[in-house]
């Protein structure tokens, strides 16, 4: 495993701020590289894979172990651009639970305990990813996104947990609409980017 190189933008130990595991301590592995192109992306520096030096997998696994975490979130960038089999096997060998956050635009290759699908209109998920999502997280940027969320709700499994989360800069405008929406559509939940309120990464 020592010669396996990971295209890493950053890694850090913090709390999961969003969605189902909000508030849980988590070690974040943020892959470099993304071609989805969301206009409101808050990690545009992740897009260019070449801008970030690769890291040896065993070095990264050691950092995860040193943190004492029992939970890793693999995110990006778009982590599903890569075959994640080796890293997920290495983390599971350390008894670490693994979640992935992905737009779903690529086939998800690896072994995950939790798959958070956060579709983007700029590059839609491939069809097979709807059925395997354990969490659907829709970013609400404008009013038309409620209808889009319903369209994608119809594609995921009945067990998939549904979240809608306001795009950060649109929170003031969208949150009151979301509160009303969730009261009328009780299968949905509101997700907030609590790490931004807490001012942690
Ligand atoms: S998929 Fe994520 S990393 Fe890629 S552009 Fe969209 S928000 Fe940014």
Structural class: alpha/beta
CATH class equals: Alpha Beta
Q: What is the CATH-assigned architecture?
A: Alpha-Beta Barrel
Spell out the helices and strands N to C: EEEEHEHEEHEHEHEH
Largest sheet, if any? 8 strands, mixed
The Rg value, from CA coordinates, equals 17 Å
Percentage of helical residues? Answer: 25-40%
Give the percentage of residues in beta strands: 15-25%
Point out poorly predicted stretches.
none
Number of helices: 6
Attached small molecules: iron/sulfur cluster
CATH superfamily: Aldolase class I
Round the mean pLDDT to the nearest integer and report it. 96
* CATH topology heading: TIM Barrel
* Structural domain count: 1
Distance between the termini: 29 Å
Shape: globular
Strand order of the largest sheet: 2-3-5-6-7-8-9-10
Describe the 3D structure:
The chain has six helices and ten strands. By secondary structure, the protein is α/β, with parallel strands linked by helices. The chain has a single domain (5-198), classed as Alpha-Beta Barrel (TIM Barrel), CATH 3.20.20.70. The protein has an eight-stranded mixed beta sheet. It has a two-stranded antiparallel ribbon with strand order 1-4. The longest helix has 14 residues, at 171-184. It is globular and about 50 Å long. The model has no long low-confidence stretch (mean pLDDT 96). The structure holds iron/sulfur cluster (SF4).
